[in-house]
Design a protein that fits this description.
Elements: H1 9-19, H2 45-54, H3 57-60, H4 80-98, H5 102-111, H6 120-127, H7 137-148, H8 155-162, H9 175-199, H10 209-215, H11 219-237, H12 244-262, H13 268-287, H14 303-312, H15 316-332
Helix pairs in contact: 2-5, 4-5, 4-9, 4-11, 5-8, 5-9, 6-13, 7-8, 8-9, 9-11, 9-12, 10-12, 13-14, 13-15
């Protein structure tokens, strides 16, 4: 008998039926894809989705997209790519402990931010005046994976991308989608605090006492505390949840970060520059839709939406260099 196993998709689907929790989403029970496909011999539907996301250009561009600090110079500041890796790690750890579908969780976590604009949430604010309602990176993530760089992903993965943001309603349709919601918040609160400390925006003694008392003294302890709370509370309640007391601490920490870091007055000038760059680019490419590469939009998009698709897909540095190329000569005249 050989020393290795040969597990086909059918074998792994059977293992999902036998080993996963009752509430887990099984790949064999997926609601399917927009375009039907033949099953892979070895990979489940959610494994294929995970692999497709990793190979997209939109995923690769995350390495040069901002998390908090716009186009940072330092090597150790968090980018959308490193954030995504951390969200994925947290999500998979919780999925494994709870008997949920790790592959679906990973596919959602890896894909959740592919629709982000340059300059983070400031980019969302800048793009919103050009659309009805509010421009959301979660919606654009679905558009990216369905239309701009079509991957024909399963319903469950697209739903998780659509609803990973807490401001989106209805909420995720799967417990794995809920895991991504929590993993996203756990990751960004932890690493954004670390980045703010590294940048000198915060001092350690500035951090809320309740956070230090309930979460611990280090980033590693914070993640461990929040993940453990998620596992224990979810197991006890039978659905993905966090202990209410710890959730209150997280909410207070999030409010603190908005006040002291995300919306601090000192960053207003940088924020307004980012908004101006995006506004200028959208107006320019709306007036010159022929300059938008076809690979960044859809054939049926009008001039404005061609421009939005193109600008939303830019990295921070490409947006800045494109703006310099288009507008700096005008400023010098």
């Amino acid at each position: 008998m050989g020393t290795l196993l040969r597990r086909t998709r059918i074998d792994r689907e059977q293992l999902e039926r036998e080993l996963l929790a009752k509430a887990a989403t099984r790949s064999s029970e997926s609601r399917g894809r927009t375009e039907p496909e033949e099953d892979d011999e070895f990979r489940t539907a959610f494994e294929r989705d995970r692999d497709r996301v990793v190979h997209t250009k939109a995923f690769r561009r995350l390495k040069h997209k901002t998390q908090v600090f716009l186009n940072p110079d330092g090597d150790h500041f968090v980018t959308r790519m490193t954030h995504t890796i951390q969200v994925n790690q947290v999500g998979r750890a919780m999925a494994r402990a709870l008997g949920l579908n790790e592959d679906l969780t990973e596919a959602i976590c890896l894909a959740h931010d592919v629709g982000h604009s340059p300059f983070g949430h400031t980019g969302e604010e800048a793009l919103s005046p050009f659309v009805d309602g509010r421009w959301l990176h979660s919606e654009h993530g679905v558009r990216t994976l369905e239309l701009l760089e079509p991957q024909n992903l399963t319903y469950e993965v697209l739903d998780g991308v659509r609803a990973h943001s807490w401001k989106v309603d209805p909420p995720p349709a799967t417990p794995e989608g809920w895991l991504c919601r929590y993993a996203d918040r756990i990751a960004y609160l932890t690493h954004d605090v670390a980045d703010a400390l590294r940048a000198g925006i915060l001092e350690y003694h500035d951090l809320p006492t309740m956070a230090l008392v309930h979460l611990g003294a280090t980033s590693r302890e914070w993640i461990d505390t929040m993940v453990t709370s998620m596992i224990e509370s979810s197991y006890a309640s039978g659905e993905v949840a966090m202990d209410p007391q710890l959730l209150t601490v997280m909410d207070e920490l999030r409010d603190f970060m908005f006040e002291r870091v995300y919306l601090r007055p000192e960053s207003e000038g940088q924020k307004q520059k980012a908004i101006s760059v995006i506004e200028d680019l959208v107006v320019h490419f709306s007036n010159h839709p022929e300059e938008v590469p076809d690979s960044f939009t859809t054939p049926t998009a009008d001039a404005l939406h061609r421009a939005i698709d193109y600008v939303a897909g830019m990295t921070d540095r490409f947006a800045l260099s494109t703006h310099d190329r288009l507008f700096r000569p005008t400023l010098l005249d």
